[in-house]
């Protein structure tokens, strides 16, 4: 028996590696063949892992067991974008609902039979009964589970991951064992605090890890349907101009502006959501499989939190003007606990289609068998049915999150309060750019998202510039700025915007804004990079010692004109 299993494992090692989707954007690429500690002796054993030789020599485990072989257990996997796990299912056992933020999972059944399933971001449940030799692919970031329903026979499987550190977020543990307030859970699961406490009582604390990847890069400036007439309005979204003209919503509302609502975002790795929280409302626990979320509180106060892969809960109370970063793929929520005042926020995502997995909806409203849920949440079928009965018609939710640097880890590590008083002062006399990027807000590091606040006094210009690492999604808060960009065929696209409008400047293209009005204007911009960087065209061209003759020829003018322009520009700030 043991020999047969080892054989299956060997077959699976080969087969699993060849078949996993490791061509996708995933772990960062390395520029060497492998990453090995500098002073290690380099021989065949450096690339060998022998730690599970005796796994099948011992008795089968009494409960579900996962044996991970990732970067931590097998350091040579570092930079190789692949790892593995051996899964043992005693009769009747469940691997409860969970996600792998950094990788899809390719499961190969070695022994016995398994019922498996996952829930996509439209909350559709896909299930299958597998026999030995079958494989099943769980797409990246989606909630999934396995169940050995045979009452007498064990089952075993081997899984391959397209990441050296795929990470695991256990849904029951992250939601019920990390100190999220009972009132928030009761509201989220539409049940009472007593039921929540009953479920909580059976959980201890687990541990797990996490990872990264962005939208695929595009190789054109933008992706627009071929039949579309390409004009400034192709890059403009005006669908929410009247959002605030109507009465505030009676329940929590999320207004998404992603690729579906705004097709020009396709390929630009950035999107946005407007969040309205009536007094006392909750945005229930959810994840965004494809992006972190950078939340900016516009109005009111919010209690926010997320759970990391070690099941630590980070919470913070935010005021208007504050930002909070929810790391990619982690379960998070927001709560407006004020009983009389509403709250509003704007969120930025580093993906054109961040996706949302609602924890209450995906677990309790998609037809997962009651017995699987009862086993997963260590409660009885009657309790599961009570929760399920309350789930119909839950509002769709939105939002994402990000990861911190070192320092003391608590809610404040994910909070940026540096611009609270920006609007307490007089408007600036000239164009002002207030960045909230990796430098100002270190927790953005690695999260592929950042923000800037732009103030345009009457008549002011944000001169032509490019952001080499990111598109820019501009949201006009006040006034009527003119905007424009030039694509790589040198076609200029311009548009006059109004408050509430958005405009997308495709990645790397020269663009500008001009407030040709007697009133001041203001905007908030989102970037799909923690450090989008800026290359000012006037500065880079005219203050960097490019020969006058070259410039005169380039701009089809004379040297005197070039020198006049140069004289008017400040020296290049090194
Ligand atoms: C490398 O060698 C030094 C000196 O022998 C030792 O202190 C250190 O622990 C070694 N590092 C690793 C990763 O083995
Ligand atoms: C459990 O497994 C045994 C052996 O494969 C099989 O004979 C039996 O029918 C299975 N029982 C169920 C309920 O599937
Ligand atoms: C609710 O908001 C109002 C206005 O900001 C404030 O005065 C009041 O203290 C808040 N109530 C609570 C319970 O925080
Ligand atoms: C965080 O890391 C930096 C750079 O390694 C280091 O200088 C700093 O002391 C660290 N801070 C803490 C609190 O560990
Ligand atoms: C600015 O506005 C004035 C008055 O409407 C108009 O004549 C002028 O063409 C505008 N300039 C630009 C660059 O749009």
UniProtKB/TrEMBL annotation:
Organism: Papaver somniferum (Opium poppy)
Molecular function via GO: manganese ion binding
Location of the protein in the cell: Secreted, Extracellular space, Apoplast
SMART domains, per database record: Cupin_1 (SM00835)
Known partners and oligomeric status: Oligomer (believed to be a pentamer but probably hexamer).
Residues that hold oxalate according to the record: 95, 100, 105
Protein name listed in UniProt: Cupin type-1 domain-containing protein
Keyword Manganese: yes
Keyword entries, A-Z: Apoplast, Glycoprotein, Manganese, Metal-binding, Secreted, Signal
Signal peptide extent: 1-25
Domain Cupin type-1: 53-197, 241-385, 420-563
GO cellular component term of the entry, any: apoplast
Ligase among keywords: no
Database matches in Pfam families: Cupin_1
Binding-site residues, Mn(2+): 98, 100, 105, 144
Family the UniProt entry places it in: Belongs to the germin family.
CDD domains in the cross-refs: cupin_OxOx
Chain's role: May play a role in plant defense. Probably has no oxalate oxidase activity even if the active site is conserved.
